[in-house]
Design brief:
8-stranded antiparallel sheet; 8 helices
Length: about 210
Amino acid sequence: MSEIVDELNRLHRQVGVRQVEAGEARTVLMRRTFDADVADVWDAVTSPERIGRWFLPVSGEFKVGGRYQLEGQAGGEILECQEPSKLRVSWLFGPDPGFSEVEVRLTPEGAERTVLELEHVAVVPPDFWDRFGPGAVGVGWDGALLGLGMHLAGGGGMSREESEAWQLSDEGKAYATRSGELWGEAYAASGADEEVVAATTAATIAFYTGAES
């Protein structure tokens, strides 16, 4: 469990609001430093073969204007690609996805370390946000960056089946619980009401641990 907490504590989390053309968008921002040079991290987050080893299999046309699809997850358009510092894509899921974009920014920190920022900006249906808050996407991104960290450290990736089994294990549930709590703290730091934070945090944890009825 201590290693799980260490992984979670390596992430800085921030919750905000932004105006976009489609309306008022919610933002979640994660920042983490990896012990890898910027070229390696860039390759890990843009190479289809490597993305499949730490996240999900991905298909598509990998150039600006091209479309991608993650297996069983989001898809969209590659909107911006500035090697090795910035990747921005639309992040669409479901029959009526609305506005949703993910941007990854990389900054070298010396020769062998890289700061990664991942920001997800989306216009979220009010009833969904009021129920789950930022943890709905935040816990999932925490898990993705856990996989990226393991991959960059030379660890073997999990298959989708192994990942799903781990999420249902005691360790996986403990990870999701602590991740949900940390997103609750970030939500509170953004100025959210204490009771709202408590309710959305509990709902998020219940969803990710399978406790939700």
